[in-house]
Amino acid sequence: MEATTSNCRMLLIEINEKLSSDDFQSLTFLAKDIVNRKRIKENENRLEFFEDLEKKAVIKCGTEETDLLFLKQAFLIMGKNNLVSALDKVGEGPCKQSSRETFVNTRRKLLYQVGEETGQEELQNLKAHLSSQVGVGKRTLDLIRDVWDCLDVLEERLSDSEMFPLLKTVYTADVKLSGLLDDFIKGIAIVGATGGQTDKAPVQEVGEHAQTHTLGTQVEDRMGSEETTYDPPPPSDGSTMTPDGALSRFSATTLSSRLSAYDKGENAGICIVLNNETFANANTHPTRNGTNADRDLLEWSFKLFGFDVRVYNNQTCQEITQLLGEIQQIDHKDNGALVVCTLSHGDLNMVSGACGQDLPINSMTSLFRADNCPSLAGKPKFFIFQACQGKDTQDVWHQTNAPVMAESDTNLVPNMAEVMTEVPHLHQLNLAPAEADFLIAHSTMPGYVSFRNGKGSFFVQSLVKHLKAHSPREDVISILVEVNRDVSQTIGRTSGGQIAAQIPEPKVRLTKKFYLFPVETEV
What's the CA gap between 239 and 246, in Å, rounded? Predict the structure, then answer.
């Protein structure tokens, strides 16, 4: 019997009618890497789900080709043999095997199996872990209707290297599932140690030359499936894997250090926002229009992440030093991190106080070295500077966006000698261990100006946007790379008509991954 567009769509309607509500939730979870599950849940339109699959070319209902392989694979995983039989009715003519071996990767199958093995006791245990270990608030917990919602929150809030170990602690009593999770965790460690990406669902390879790697094989063999789909990237140059998946060069210690993250602490920590808008000498240090917008954004953002935010406006150098000295004396043992945001004029390695004098950046950061502030030892110290680091403007090599009118955050002292724009060579730096665990995010490179307009600075606007969009799925360093890309595509035009670009510069002395976790409170 020849399959047609009409009978294919009728079949989808028939399948939709046979799917229970629980079945549909399971199906959308299996398709989550392909179709936006949140939108389907909100619309509660089941047929729209099938339309989305067709738009993504995952299924095809055409006169020339009918391809429902994804649904067949999903129903086989779900154990819905009656629906598999219904799919077989479309005929063997145009209905042919997709060039893609499988649509549901091993990671998704494993999470599905976790869901299938979850009863009320496990669900309550998972929700308790979401509250105590992930920082999910009561409002979000109350919206969780079933295990699929619970897994959605876990995937949204945690990286794979955090999520799967947490799941293993919940399902320790289930020997089979615990073993599958353990295999997957070991595979994540192997991929992470060899330079692969560990915190994302892997991109499935298309075509007959797609490679199969150890992790997919290990987990699939334990799950009893015929398909091997995880396909983590092969080892990078300089490291190899033996046939049984063991590393030939990396030790267990190396694996641990590659995957470790800073503890988030009982409290997120303190966030200081130093906002200098007006200065003693307006001729050399003009009013920084738009800085209050940056101040408000930073205050809102870090409150969102649970920080105790303290804002100080128009502080002199002496006041800044005294204020930071007081923060240094606080016992930070229950805090996860320290954040200090400085919005001011500046120059190379300097920021300007409201008094018009310059304060060395090193004098600010050194207060919180491990030997000067022991309660912050081993914890991330995140310093954000929206300030110029010189007088030069960066040329636009390839303009992609319309220029935005902007001012710079350099002071305007005339006849100042040209500033050094080169970063010292690595061998010139002498960073003692006491200076570890710092992340210093400059809005611009050494020697160059930083732009701002009435809406705020390019850098802070982008930083706040991406911290909110990507935390905690991405660590802060990865987010700063995205901020670099975003800011570099924004072109500034000075009041004199000059067009210039800007590229921020993060300085990283962190020893672990640093994540920010939103809290469920009104801010």
Answer: 11
- Cα 421 to Cα 196: distance, rounded to the nearest angstrom: 34
Helices (H), 225-372: 252-259, 291-304, 317-329, 361-365
Q: What tokens were used for 382?
A: 């995140």
Q: Of the listed 345, 355, 373, 466, which one is catalytic?
A: 345
- Dihedral (C-alpha) 466, 467, 469, 470: value to the nearest 10 degrees? 100
Q: Taking the domain 5-90, which CATH number applies?
A: 1.10.533
What span, in angstroms and rounded, lies between the C-alpha atoms of 331 and 208?
Answer: 59
- For the cut 80, the answer to whether the pLDDT of residue 401 exceeds it is no
Q: Which is higher by pLDDT, 389 or 377?
A: 377
Query: Is 388 tagged catalytic?
Result: yes
CA angle 332/334/340 to nearest 5° reads 45
- Asked if 345 is an active-site residue, the reply is yes
Provide the CATH number for the domain formed by 269-424+432-508 in this structure: 3.40.50.1460
Residue 316, SS3? coil
Out of 285, 373, 388, 442, the active site residue is 388
Q: How confident is the model at residue 197 (pLDDT cuts 50, 70, 90)?
A: very low
